[in-house]
Design a protein that fits this description.
It is a single chain. Helix content is 43%, strand content 19%. The chain is an alpha/beta fold. It has two domains: 161 residues, 3-Layer(aba) Sandwich (D-Maltodextrin-Binding Protein, domain 2), CATH 3.40.190.150; 98 residues, D-Maltodextrin-Binding Protein, domain 2 (3-Layer(aba) Sandwich), CATH 3.40.190. Strand 1, helix 3 and strand 2 form a beta-alpha-beta unit. Helix 3 crosses helix 10 and helix 5 packs parallel to helix 12. The radius of gyration is 22 Å and the shape is globular. The chain starts with a helix and ends in a 6-residue tail after the last helix. The N terminus is likely disordered. Bound molecules: aspartic acid. Aspartic acid binds next to helix 3, helix 7, helix 8 and strand 7.
Length: 326
Protein backbone atom coordinates (compact mmCIF):
# COMPACT_ATOMS: atom_id res chain seq x y z
CA UNK A 1 0.00 0.00 0.00
CA UNK A 2 1.31 3.39 -0.95
CA UNK A 3 2.20 5.83 1.76
CA UNK A 4 -0.57 8.22 0.73
CA UNK A 5 -3.24 5.45 0.88
CA UNK A 6 -1.97 4.31 4.27
CA UNK A 7 -2.00 7.89 5.45
CA UNK A 8 -5.55 8.40 4.22
CA UNK A 9 -6.70 5.16 5.81
CA UNK A 10 -5.20 6.10 9.21
CA UNK A 11 -6.69 9.53 8.89
CA UNK A 12 -10.07 7.91 8.27
CA UNK A 13 -9.71 5.73 11.38
CA UNK A 14 -8.65 8.74 13.39
CA UNK A 15 -11.65 10.74 12.22
CA UNK A 16 -13.90 7.83 13.10
CA UNK A 17 -12.31 7.53 16.54
CA UNK A 18 -12.68 11.26 17.16
CA UNK A 19 -16.29 11.21 16.07
CA UNK A 20 -17.15 8.56 18.61
CA UNK A 21 -14.86 9.79 21.37
CA UNK A 22 -16.64 11.28 24.35
CA UNK A 23 -14.51 13.91 26.07
CA UNK A 24 -13.28 12.61 29.42
CA UNK A 25 -15.00 15.48 31.23
CA UNK A 26 -18.37 14.44 29.79
CA UNK A 27 -17.74 10.72 30.37
CA UNK A 28 -16.94 11.19 34.07
CA UNK A 29 -19.64 13.79 34.62
CA UNK A 30 -20.52 14.71 37.28
CA UNK A 31 -17.41 14.78 39.45
CA UNK A 32 -18.52 17.61 41.73
CA UNK A 33 -21.69 19.30 42.94
CA UNK A 34 -24.12 20.80 40.45
CA UNK A 35 -25.81 24.17 40.95
CA UNK A 36 -29.45 24.43 39.93
CA UNK A 37 -30.57 28.04 39.69
CA UNK A 38 -34.18 28.63 40.71
CA UNK A 39 -35.06 32.12 39.45
CA UNK A 40 -37.70 32.70 42.18
CA UNK A 41 -37.86 32.74 45.96
CA UNK A 42 -37.93 29.60 48.10
CA UNK A 43 -41.33 28.07 48.77
CA UNK A 44 -42.90 28.85 45.37
CA UNK A 45 -43.84 26.32 42.68
CA UNK A 46 -40.53 26.50 40.79
CA UNK A 47 -38.56 26.03 43.99
CA UNK A 48 -40.76 23.20 45.28
CA UNK A 49 -40.76 21.25 41.99
CA UNK A 50 -36.98 21.73 41.61
CA UNK A 51 -36.25 20.45 45.09
CA UNK A 52 -38.46 17.37 44.70
CA UNK A 53 -36.91 16.31 41.38
CA UNK A 54 -33.31 17.44 42.08
CA UNK A 55 -33.03 15.40 45.26
CA UNK A 56 -33.82 12.22 43.29
CA UNK A 57 -31.57 13.23 40.37
CA UNK A 58 -28.66 13.75 42.74
CA UNK A 59 -29.00 10.13 43.94
CA UNK A 60 -28.85 8.92 40.33
CA UNK A 61 -25.92 11.17 39.42
CA UNK A 62 -23.97 10.55 42.64
CA UNK A 63 -23.40 14.25 43.28
CA UNK A 64 -25.28 16.89 45.25
CA UNK A 65 -27.51 19.30 43.34
CA UNK A 66 -27.56 22.58 45.22
CA UNK A 67 -30.53 24.89 44.65
CA UNK A 68 -29.58 28.55 44.36
CA UNK A 69 -32.49 31.02 44.44
CA UNK A 70 -31.43 33.92 42.18
CA UNK A 71 -34.46 36.22 42.23
CA UNK A 72 -35.61 39.39 40.48
CA UNK A 73 -37.29 40.82 37.37
CA UNK A 74 -39.89 38.08 37.04
CA UNK A 75 -37.26 35.33 36.96
CA UNK A 76 -35.23 36.94 34.18
CA UNK A 77 -32.32 37.87 36.52
CA UNK A 78 -31.59 34.24 37.41
CA UNK A 79 -32.24 33.10 33.86
CA UNK A 80 -29.76 35.64 32.48
CA UNK A 81 -27.19 34.37 35.00
CA UNK A 82 -27.78 30.79 33.81
CA UNK A 83 -27.52 31.76 30.13
CA UNK A 84 -24.08 33.26 30.80
CA UNK A 85 -22.80 30.43 33.04
CA UNK A 86 -20.04 28.05 31.95
CA UNK A 87 -21.60 25.38 29.75
CA UNK A 88 -20.04 22.40 31.50
CA UNK A 89 -23.13 20.86 33.09
CA UNK A 90 -22.37 22.24 36.55
CA UNK A 91 -24.85 25.12 36.26
CA UNK A 92 -28.45 24.38 35.33
CA UNK A 93 -31.69 26.31 35.69
CA UNK A 94 -35.29 25.40 36.32
CA UNK A 95 -37.18 27.75 34.07
CA UNK A 96 -40.85 27.88 33.19
CA UNK A 97 -43.50 29.19 30.87
CA UNK A 98 -42.60 32.70 32.05
CA UNK A 99 -38.81 32.80 31.93
CA UNK A 100 -38.60 30.66 28.78
CA UNK A 101 -41.58 32.00 26.81
CA UNK A 102 -43.73 34.87 28.13
CA UNK A 103 -40.71 37.01 29.08
CA UNK A 104 -39.76 37.31 25.40
CA UNK A 105 -42.60 39.66 24.33
CA UNK A 106 -42.69 41.41 27.73
CA UNK A 107 -39.01 42.41 27.69
CA UNK A 108 -37.91 43.70 24.27
CA UNK A 109 -34.32 43.96 25.61
CA UNK A 110 -34.21 40.54 27.28
CA UNK A 111 -30.54 39.54 27.71
CA UNK A 112 -31.16 35.97 26.52
CA UNK A 113 -33.38 34.11 24.12
CA UNK A 114 -34.89 30.86 25.39
CA UNK A 115 -34.45 29.13 22.02
CA UNK A 116 -30.87 30.12 21.22
CA UNK A 117 -29.14 30.59 24.59
CA UNK A 118 -30.22 27.33 26.23
CA UNK A 119 -30.14 23.59 25.69
CA UNK A 120 -33.43 21.94 26.65
CA UNK A 121 -32.79 19.25 29.28
CA UNK A 122 -36.10 17.95 30.61
CA UNK A 123 -39.70 18.94 31.19
CA UNK A 124 -40.52 18.32 34.86
CA UNK A 125 -44.17 19.16 35.37
CA UNK A 126 -47.26 20.71 33.88
CA UNK A 127 -48.99 23.09 36.27
CA UNK A 128 -52.61 24.20 35.81
CA UNK A 129 -53.37 27.81 36.75
CA UNK A 130 -55.78 28.60 39.57
CA UNK A 131 -57.70 31.79 40.31
CA UNK A 132 -57.02 32.54 43.98
CA UNK A 133 -58.08 35.22 46.45
CA UNK A 134 -57.68 36.18 50.10
CA UNK A 135 -59.91 34.10 52.32
CA UNK A 136 -62.32 36.94 53.12
CA UNK A 137 -62.78 38.00 49.49
CA UNK A 138 -66.45 39.00 49.12
CA UNK A 139 -67.45 36.45 46.44
CA UNK A 140 -68.63 32.90 46.91
CA UNK A 141 -68.11 31.64 43.34
CA UNK A 142 -66.40 32.56 40.08
CA UNK A 143 -69.36 34.56 38.72
CA UNK A 144 -69.47 36.74 41.85
CA UNK A 145 -65.68 37.06 41.79
CA UNK A 146 -65.75 38.30 38.19
CA UNK A 147 -68.58 40.76 38.95
CA UNK A 148 -66.70 42.08 42.00
CA UNK A 149 -63.46 42.44 40.05
CA UNK A 150 -65.19 44.42 37.30
CA UNK A 151 -66.99 46.69 39.77
CA UNK A 152 -64.01 47.34 42.06
CA UNK A 153 -60.89 47.17 39.87
CA UNK A 154 -59.55 50.51 41.11
CA UNK A 155 -59.44 49.26 44.69
CA UNK A 156 -57.94 45.81 44.05
CA UNK A 157 -54.36 44.55 44.31
CA UNK A 158 -53.21 41.62 42.20
CA UNK A 159 -50.13 39.79 43.50
CA UNK A 160 -47.61 38.34 41.05
CA UNK A 161 -44.00 37.18 40.84
CA UNK A 162 -42.74 40.03 38.66
CA UNK A 163 -43.21 41.02 35.02
CA UNK A 164 -42.50 37.95 32.93
CA UNK A 165 -43.51 35.44 35.58
CA UNK A 166 -46.27 32.89 35.10
CA UNK A 167 -48.49 34.57 37.68
CA UNK A 168 -48.07 37.95 35.95
CA UNK A 169 -48.73 36.65 32.43
CA UNK A 170 -51.61 34.39 33.33
CA UNK A 171 -53.35 37.11 35.38
CA UNK A 172 -52.75 39.61 32.55
CA UNK A 173 -54.62 37.16 30.37
CA UNK A 174 -57.49 37.06 32.91
CA UNK A 175 -57.50 40.86 33.19
CA UNK A 176 -57.68 41.20 29.42
CA UNK A 177 -60.55 38.68 29.21
CA UNK A 178 -62.37 40.76 31.87
CA UNK A 179 -61.13 44.08 30.45
CA UNK A 180 -59.87 45.35 33.83
CA UNK A 181 -56.62 46.98 35.00
CA UNK A 182 -55.98 46.32 38.69
CA UNK A 183 -52.85 47.43 40.58
CA UNK A 184 -50.11 44.81 40.33
CA UNK A 185 -48.01 44.02 43.40
CA UNK A 186 -44.75 42.26 42.48
CA UNK A 187 -42.95 39.74 44.70
CA UNK A 188 -39.77 37.74 44.11
CA UNK A 189 -41.79 34.58 43.63
CA UNK A 190 -45.21 33.25 44.45
CA UNK A 191 -43.90 31.77 47.70
CA UNK A 192 -43.80 35.27 49.24
CA UNK A 193 -46.87 36.33 47.20
CA UNK A 194 -48.79 33.43 48.72
CA UNK A 195 -47.74 34.55 52.21
CA UNK A 196 -49.17 37.99 51.45
CA UNK A 197 -52.42 36.42 50.18
CA UNK A 198 -52.70 34.29 53.31
CA UNK A 199 -51.98 37.43 55.37
CA UNK A 200 -54.76 39.23 53.41
CA UNK A 201 -52.34 41.99 52.35
CA UNK A 202 -53.26 41.48 48.67
CA UNK A 203 -56.60 40.62 47.05
CA UNK A 204 -56.07 38.02 44.37
CA UNK A 205 -53.57 36.08 42.31
CA UNK A 206 -53.44 33.64 39.40
CA UNK A 207 -50.80 31.00 39.90
CA UNK A 208 -49.46 27.54 39.25
CA UNK A 209 -51.40 25.07 41.35
CA UNK A 210 -48.41 23.70 43.29
CA UNK A 211 -48.11 25.75 46.46
CA UNK A 212 -51.79 26.68 46.51
CA UNK A 213 -53.11 23.16 47.19
CA UNK A 214 -52.05 22.98 50.87
CA UNK A 215 -53.39 26.49 51.51
CA UNK A 216 -56.75 25.82 49.85
CA UNK A 217 -57.12 22.57 51.80
CA UNK A 218 -56.18 24.40 54.99
CA UNK A 219 -58.77 27.14 54.31
CA UNK A 220 -56.23 29.97 54.47
CA UNK A 221 -57.09 31.27 50.96
CA UNK A 222 -60.02 30.97 48.52
CA UNK A 223 -59.85 29.31 45.12
CA UNK A 224 -62.48 30.14 42.48
CA UNK A 225 -61.50 27.94 39.54
CA UNK A 226 -58.89 25.90 37.76
CA UNK A 227 -58.27 27.30 34.25
CA UNK A 228 -58.06 23.93 32.48
CA UNK A 229 -60.76 21.95 30.66
CA UNK A 230 -60.78 19.24 33.36
CA UNK A 231 -60.95 19.45 37.15
CA UNK A 232 -57.70 18.65 38.96
CA UNK A 233 -57.56 15.39 40.95
CA UNK A 234 -55.80 17.12 43.86
CA UNK A 235 -58.75 19.54 44.25
CA UNK A 236 -61.77 17.56 43.01
CA UNK A 237 -64.32 20.07 44.38
CA UNK A 238 -62.84 23.06 42.56
CA UNK A 239 -64.82 23.88 39.38
CA UNK A 240 -63.14 24.64 36.07
CA UNK A 241 -63.45 28.08 34.48
CA UNK A 242 -65.77 26.45 31.93
CA UNK A 243 -68.09 25.21 34.68
CA UNK A 244 -67.81 28.58 36.44
CA UNK A 245 -68.99 30.53 33.37
CA UNK A 246 -65.65 31.90 32.15
CA UNK A 247 -64.66 29.47 29.35
CA UNK A 248 -62.53 32.12 27.62
CA UNK A 249 -59.99 31.90 30.42
CA UNK A 250 -57.76 28.86 29.88
CA UNK A 251 -54.22 28.79 31.29
CA UNK A 252 -51.65 26.28 32.34
CA UNK A 253 -47.90 26.45 32.78
CA UNK A 254 -44.91 24.13 33.06
CA UNK A 255 -41.47 23.90 34.67
CA UNK A 256 -38.39 22.46 32.97
CA UNK A 257 -34.62 22.16 33.34
CA UNK A 258 -32.35 23.97 30.90
CA UNK A 259 -28.55 24.18 30.52
CA UNK A 260 -26.48 26.97 28.96
CA UNK A 261 -26.09 26.67 25.16
CA UNK A 262 -23.22 24.42 24.12
CA UNK A 263 -23.32 22.12 27.14
CA UNK A 264 -21.94 18.82 25.74
CA UNK A 265 -24.58 16.40 24.40
CA UNK A 266 -23.47 13.41 26.55
CA UNK A 267 -23.92 15.55 29.69
CA UNK A 268 -27.37 16.67 28.55
CA UNK A 269 -28.29 13.03 27.90
CA UNK A 270 -27.18 12.02 31.42
CA UNK A 271 -29.20 14.82 32.96
CA UNK A 272 -32.26 14.01 30.86
CA UNK A 273 -32.07 10.33 31.86
CA UNK A 274 -31.71 11.25 35.56
CA UNK A 275 -34.76 13.53 35.34
CA UNK A 276 -36.80 10.83 33.58
CA UNK A 277 -35.81 8.33 36.28
CA UNK A 278 -36.92 10.78 38.97
CA UNK A 279 -40.31 11.18 37.25
CA UNK A 280 -40.76 7.39 37.34
CA UNK A 281 -40.04 7.19 41.07
CA UNK A 282 -43.16 6.43 43.15
CA UNK A 283 -42.33 8.92 45.88
CA UNK A 284 -41.47 11.75 43.47
CA UNK A 285 -44.65 11.08 41.49
CA UNK A 286 -46.82 11.09 44.59
CA UNK A 287 -45.37 14.36 45.83
CA UNK A 288 -45.84 16.08 42.45
CA UNK A 289 -49.34 14.68 41.94
CA UNK A 290 -50.46 15.58 45.47
CA UNK A 291 -49.50 19.17 44.65
CA UNK A 292 -51.71 19.09 41.57
CA UNK A 293 -49.05 19.01 38.87
CA UNK A 294 -49.14 16.78 35.78
CA UNK A 295 -46.20 14.47 35.20
CA UNK A 296 -45.06 14.49 31.55
CA UNK A 297 -45.55 11.20 29.70
CA UNK A 298 -42.39 9.52 28.33
CA UNK A 299 -42.82 11.07 24.86
CA UNK A 300 -42.93 14.52 26.45
CA UNK A 301 -39.74 14.01 28.41
CA UNK A 302 -37.20 14.16 25.57
CA UNK A 303 -34.94 17.12 24.98
CA UNK A 304 -36.47 17.53 21.52
CA UNK A 305 -40.00 17.65 22.96
CA UNK A 306 -38.96 20.39 25.38
CA UNK A 307 -37.27 22.34 22.57
CA UNK A 308 -40.49 22.15 20.54
CA UNK A 309 -42.59 23.21 23.55
CA UNK A 310 -40.42 26.30 24.13
CA UNK A 311 -40.68 27.26 20.46
CA UNK A 312 -44.47 26.96 20.41
CA UNK A 313 -44.88 28.73 23.77
CA UNK A 314 -42.69 31.67 22.71
CA UNK A 315 -44.85 32.03 19.58
CA UNK A 316 -48.10 31.67 21.55
CA UNK A 317 -47.25 34.25 24.23
CA UNK A 318 -45.68 36.63 21.71
CA UNK A 319 -49.09 36.77 20.03
CA UNK A 320 -50.96 37.73 23.22
CA UNK A 321 -48.55 39.82 25.33
CA UNK A 322 -47.14 43.26 24.59
CA UNK A 323 -44.10 44.91 26.24
CA UNK A 324 -44.89 45.56 29.89
CA UNK A 325 -45.74 49.05 31.01
CA UNK A 326 -46.00 48.40 34.76
N1 LIG B 1 -45.09 30.60 40.15
C1 LIG B 1 -44.26 31.75 40.05
C2 LIG B 1 -44.55 32.54 38.84
O1 LIG B 1 -45.50 33.21 38.87
C3 LIG B 1 -42.83 31.62 40.31
C4 LIG B 1 -42.46 30.80 41.48
O2 LIG B 1 -42.32 31.31 42.60
O3 LIG B 1 -42.30 29.63 41.24
O4 LIG B 1 -43.86 32.57 37.85
Amino acid sequence: MSFSRLFLRSLGLLTLATAFAVPAAAQDYPTRQITMIVPFAAGGPTDVISRIVASHMSQTLGQAIVIENVVGAGGTTGTTRAAKATNDGYTLITGHMGTHAAAVPLYPKLAYHPETDFEPVALLAGTPILILARKDFPASNLKEFVAYLKANTDKLNMAHAGVGSVSYSSCELLNSVLDIKPTGVPFNGTGPAMNALVGQQVDYMCDQIVNAVPQIKGGTIRAYAVATPERNPSLPDLPTTIEGGLPAYQASAWNAIFAPKGTPAPILAKLNAAAAKALDDENVRKRLLDLGSDIPKPEGRTQAALGALVKSEVAKWSAVLKPATN
